[in-house]
Amino acid sequence: MDNYRSLSQPVRLIYPSNYHPVPSYLAPGSFTNGLLFIGGQVALDAHGRLVGSGDIEAQTTQVLKNTFALLDHCGCTVRDLTMVTVYLRSMSYFPGFNRVYERAMEGWAPPRTTTKAELVDPEFLVEIQAIASAAEGQGGFPS
Question: Per residue of the chain (143 residues), what is the pLDDT tens digit?
Fold first, then answer.
């Protein structure tokens, strides 16, 4: 086990300055070993207010805006995404979600899992977590 541990880098927690407020025990993202891990993104704006109550397309747009803001903060783009996991409150939201997602991804199609889930707030219709390839010092990645 020590052999593997010696190859790993420390984990760095990511807190963008223009990101909505989060509890002190929860980082929006983390970086280690060339990978950016983006925690579950929901439809909250920079002030922590819900965007698009009852509207899957508006919520998906905000969730992707938050996801892309974390990518951008670390000097990454949508093309650095290597895996996306999507949680929908109801699978009936899938068509509306998918329309927005497909446009936003600009032809990039990383592996994706989409599943139905009971989200932490009943007003949240969609949540996305993702993994991206990122090199420390790349673009705007905080060093």
Answer: 455 555 568 899 998 888 888 888 889 999 999 999 999 999 999 999 999 999 999 999 999 999 999 999 999 999 999 999 999 999 999 999 999 999 999 999 999 999 999 999 999 999 999 999 987 655 445 54
How far, in Å, CA of 89 to CA of 119, rounded?
Answer: 6
Topology annotation, domain 30-133: 60s Ribosomal Protein L30; Chain: A; (3.30.1330)
Two structure tokens written together for 77 = 């783009």
Q: Please, is 84 exposed, middle or buried when counting C-beta atoms within 10 Å of its C-beta (0-12, 13-18, 19+)? A: buried
- Quote helix, strand, coil % in the chain, to nearest 5: 25, 25, 45
* Tokens matching residue 24: 């002190």
| Domain residue ranges of the chain, discontinuous segments joined by + | 30-133
Q: What is the reported pTM?
A: 0.89
